[in-house]
Specification:
This protein is α/β, with parallel strands linked by helices. The protein has 13 helices and 18 strands. The structure holds flavin-adenine dinucleotide. The site of flavin-adenine dinucleotide has 31 residues, from helix 1, strand 2, helix 8 and helix 9. This is FAD-dependent monooxygenase. It comes from Pseudonocardia xishanensis.
Length: 398
């Protein structure tokens, strides 16, 4: 008998899971709270095992075609001079800017296009959950063999099945706002980053010439604000960036006009279990590593592949969930180790710490230390043996 799955969230993990579940013989419904596919987001990195999943989905040509040509990362001073650079090629395409950088919105679109064999319900969310029974916001009540939260760090499924967000979301000490803005400098393929104590302004290339993907970050304890009030959030970010040098004023001006503004706490999601009864979590909903690691997208792709594969391999949902947890746990644990200094490495709190960061970056990419840098900081995405689930129940088609 055909098994059924409900997936909540049509970001990166959700459509990837849907793709692989269909190949394991499931009928899949995806609900997404946004009214349509969500655009926006900066470039996300495809690393290690995450790349392998894209290859196994046959999507690498589409992804490569959409990838951005990038030179690398440069720390700049207030006049825009490069103080330190990490070029893409310095670490063989696996550094802070990786060889495969794709706009998040483009990756989400490619994944959606690959899953037209699923039912998508946009503008819909799960409002109540009783193990395999879900009440949807359109009023319908439906039964599924499995229900999966792929709905990001503020997961609704996690809240309904596991408990309140505060139990699982660990703030790391800052906020980042992402949005599209006019290119303030002529980026020429560079991801340029400017630091003042506790604050970072950055701009990186967009697929449209003359536009930039901007980021404004600041150190902070968790703040109270209305997640639906975008104007208030923009005002908050503008206030935190006030008086900052380089091209920050232009970026702040661009932010006020941006229609894809996205502000979030820099945080990780940590849980002892990602499954209960017939409900599971995948991607940021269960194990967001934070943008500081550059591994969120790879984890989402790998988690979705493994969860679908184990559900195909086992008739018992409980056995499949146990195997998913066991296989993913070590991979997630090392992906959640933060880079040195955590958010204070990314947004150093003093001028001295900023200077130290610049010297560190020069050392990391110096020829004698490149191999070590790669081993120490940029090999985590590969640290999992991906099973071949293709023959588990005979329904796999690729
Ligand atoms: C708009 C946006 C911009 C982003 N920009 C960046 C970026 O610039 N750099 C970066 O490193 N990471 C960014 N991220 C995060 C990055 O996409 C994830 O870390 C990673 O790809 C893991 O993907 P995910 O599918 O687990 O979560 P997400 O990509 O966050 O997807 C979750 C999806 O679930 C939907 N959703 C949320 N709540 C519900 C609900 N209750 N019911 C139904 N659906 C729900 C969301 O609308 C979203 O489409 C962004 C995420 C979003 C949503």
């Amino acid at each position: 008998m055909t098994r059924t799955a409900l997936v909540s969230g049509a970001g990166i993990a959700g459509p990837t899971l849907a793709y692989w579940l269909v190949r394991q013989g499931f009928t899949v419904t995806v609900v997404e709270s946004a009214p349509g596919p969500r655009p926006g987001g900066q470039t996300v990195d495809l690393r290690g095992a995450g790349r392998t999943i894209i290859e196994r989905m046959g999507l690498m040509p589409a992804v490569r075609a959409a990838c951005m040509e990038q030179e690398g990362l440069a720390y700049v001073d207030a006049e825009g001079h490069h103080l330190a650079e990490m070029r893409v090629a310095d670490l063989g395409g696996d550094g802070i800017v990786s060889e495969l950088e794709i706009l998040r919105g483009d990756l989400a679109r490619i994944l959606l296009d690959a899953t037209t064999d699923c039912e998508y319900l946009f503008g819909t969310r799960v409002t109540a959950l009783d193990d395999g029974t879900a009440t949807l916001s359109d009023g319908t009540v439906r039964e599924f063999d499995v229900i999966v939260g792929a709905d990001g760090p503020h997961s609704g499924i996690r809240r309904l099945a596991f408990g309140p967000e505060e139990r699982f979301v660990r703030p790391i000490g800052g906020y980042t706002a992402w949005f599209t803005a006019p290119d303030p400098v002529g980026l020429e393929g560079w991801y340029r980053m400017y630091n003042e104590p506790g604050r970072v302004a950055s701009a990186r290339p967009d697929s449209v010439p003359g536009r930039a993907k901007a980021g404004l970050s600041f150190l902070s304890e968790p703040l109270e604000y209305d997640r639906r009030d975008v104007a208030a959030q923009k005002a908050l970010v503008a206030e935190r960036m006030a008086g900052m040098g380089w091209r920050t004023p232009q970026l702040v001006e661009g932010m006020h006009a941006a229609d894809d503004f996205y502000l979030d706490l820099v945080a990780q999601v940590r849980m002892d279990h990602w499954t209960t009864g017939r409900v599971a979590l995948v991607g940021d909903a269960g194990y967001c590593p934070s943008p500081l690691t550059g591994l969120g997208t790879s984890l989402a792709l790998v988690g979705a592949y493994v969860l679908a594969g184990e559900l195909g391999r086992h008739d018992s949902v409980a056995e499949a969930f146990a195997a998913y947890e066991e296989r993913m746990r070590p991979y997630v644990a090392q992906a959640q180790e933060l880079p040195p200094g955590g958010i204070r490495g990314y947004a150093p709190p003093t001028h001295r710490a900023i200077r130290r960061g610049i010297v560190m970056m020069r050392l990391m990419v110096s020829r004698p230390l490149r191999g070590l840098t790669k081993r120490l900081f940029f090999s985590k995405a590969e640290a999992i043996d991906l099973p071949d689930y293709s023959c588990t129940n005979g329904t796999f088609v690729r």
